[in-house]
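Collaborator request log, item 7. Partner lab (contact: R.S.) asked for a structural prediction of histidine kinase to inform their binding assays.
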Amino acid sequence: MVFPLMGSFFWNSRRLSLVMIFLAIGILLWMGIVSLRFLGSFLQESDRVEHSWMVLTSIDRLFSELQDAETGERGYIITRNPSFLSPYQSAGKKVRGHLQDLEHLVSDRPSQEKRAMELGQLIDKRLFLLGKGVALGKSGISPHPDALLMVMLRGKEVMDQIRHQTQSMKSSEYRRLRRRSLLFYRTKKKVLPLVGGGLAASVLMISLSSLFLSREIDRRVQAEQKARKYAEEVRNLYDYAPCGYHSVDREGIFLRINETELSWLGYRREELEGKKRIFELLFPEDLPLYQNAFQGMLRGEPVRDLRLRFLRKDGSVLPVLLNVSVNRDDSGKFFSTRGVLLDMTDKRIDEEKILDLNRTLSERNRQLEVTNGELEGFSYSVSHDLRAPLRSIDGFSRILQEDYAGKLDAEGERVIGVIRNNTRKMSNLIDDLLAFSRLGKKAFSWSLVDMEALIREDILPGVLSGSEKGTGVDVTLSPLPRAWGDRTLLAQVWTNLLSNAVKFSEKREKPSVRVEGRVETEEVVYTVRDNGVGFDMQYYDKLFKVFQRLHAQAEFPGTGVGLAIVQRVIARHGGRVWAESQSNEGAAFHFSLPVRDSPPV
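Returned to partner:
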């Protein structure tokens, strides 16, 4: 009975991948414990060897510069040519700089520090004698041979002492270097095979776990594709049903409309959605009838078999039979309508067929609601099932990174960094996907929003601190008009637009972002401009779609959901979103909100 259970466990790809990850982490922990005592001494001896070479190099540079100063002094005394003073003066300045470096390098060894101090005293004497010789050359008369000879003999005596002192320091440092090099190579010989073998084993385990996890993801992707295909079929049913289908908000502005109704009315989608009110399309004599029914809709009352006449774009009349149900938000308040139109132009359609068709459409509406619920449940299930292994991978990787910081070599740190970075990317993708799917049901909290204060106090600090070079971006915030809307949702719009502007411009020499606003006749327009990389307008149709990116992930990280969220939020406010750009010449993103004197009823 035990063996079948074990088989079912190990043949589950997700569980098997987790087992592999735990094994890899176990190997890395074992490798860290075993190599801990070697790794510290390895790094310490490496630093000591490098330090000894720096001491030797500093001594050689110091003595070389001192010789250059001596050569310049002698050349000037012999030839009286001022050109010899330049190397003398330059070398004199460099000697003191090299002496300070040397004293700092040997400060950890009292014996060498003492020699360095003695060497400094000798160098001061030599520089004094060099200066005295140059002064004799500058006196304007031929110096007395005895005085000149005394200066040169005394200088040679001091130089011999300096040479002896430097040789003494170098001999001591060479002995120390030989001891350090021997310890360094012994430690290296032990550490490298151990670290290499451990890393190879852990990489193998992680590769196997990635393979199994990839299979699990492929299976889920196939399920998601199937769900998307089903959703697309539902969308086609909505758009090309044999009836008109539309939704309007509290002010009667079209939120959605299907292709069938658009073809009946003769309008394009962008001419109606988010722009026109349904009252503008009604036959004048039927307007009071619909307004009375609309007040009932705001109270949550459905409309059944209302006969109306619409005006097409060309001015002709379209007789319809309207049925409307009401969409409510999470608090049970009116959110939008869901209207079904039947073309009554053909008088031969009998009432029975109309009622049958209406019942069919109502059933399909119910199916659509069920499908949306299933898609939402699917999104939650995917995010929940994927978060558990992600949290495990990220948690153990973080423990390894923190507990063994500075003890792993660069390749080990890089491998852990790659694991954590990809875990964060997948987690962000799940979060953005869920946030996007929930936007359509979030209840509105209307208020008069001070856009300028919202950006300055709540948005900019987080955007700039979250960017690698955000503090270097020049952000210009012009006076912005206020507008009615949901402050939380509008904060999300500003965060996404400003984060994109900073991200795509921060690689410029002088990155800049400008925020502007203006009030027009029927709408308030806001603009975010940057001088970043921009985009090619031929790909504009992909800009506001979910997971559509116009730049490489490696160059500009992101999930491809931010602009889709912006468009959905602004559409719920009854506004519109658009953009203008050219490659490598920056971009301007605009959005508008309707001008209102008060929040919608």
